[in-house]
Amino acid sequence: MLHHVQSHPRFRGRGVGAALMNHARQIARDEMELEQLHLAARAGMGLEEFYGRLGWKEIGRWPGALRLGPGDDRDEILMVLDPL
């Protein structure tokens, strides 16, 4: 299980996040022999597009599931990577 994976904002756009996710995919497929991975991401951060470029597909949302502050409720985006 990977939990709360993120890159530092100053280093975004350099391929660090994609490299981390691709390595996790490789371990899941080659070492753990998994067939798919699931993740939940916070809406409103452009993460749908980031993960979409890596092959992840949105499979659902929990509207307003994440409260970041008063009046700042975000959907939780559920995604799957299948096949690995």
Largest sheet report: 3 strands, antiparallel
User: What is the terminal separation in angstroms?
Assistant: 15 Å
Oligomer: single chain
Give the spatial strand order of the biggest sheet: 1-3-2
Mean pLDDT equals: 95
Principal-axes shape call: globular
Helix content: 25-40%
What can you tell me about this protein's structure?
By secondary structure, this protein is α+β, with helices and mostly antiparallel strands. It has a domain at 37-83. It is 27% helix and 35% strand. The protein contains 2 helices and 3 strands. It has helices spanning 16-31, 47-53; strands at residues 37-42, 57-69, 72-81. It has a 3-stranded antiparallel β-sheet. Strand 2 and strand 3 form a beta hairpin. The radius of gyration is 14 Å and the shape is globular. The mean pLDDT is 95.
Could you list some keywords that capture this structure?
about 80 residues, alpha+beta, three-stranded antiparallel β-sheet, 2 helices, 3 strands, about 25% helix, globular, Acetyltransferase (GNAT) family protein
In short:
Residues 1-84 form the N-acetyltransferase domain. This protein is of the alpha+beta class and 84 residues long.
Write the layout of secondary structure elements.
Elements: H1 16-31, E1 37-42, H2 47-53, E2 57-69, E3 72-81
Antiparallel strand pairs: 1-3, 2-3
Keywords: Transferase
Protein name: Acetyltransferase (GNAT) family protein
Domain N-acetyltransferase: 1-84
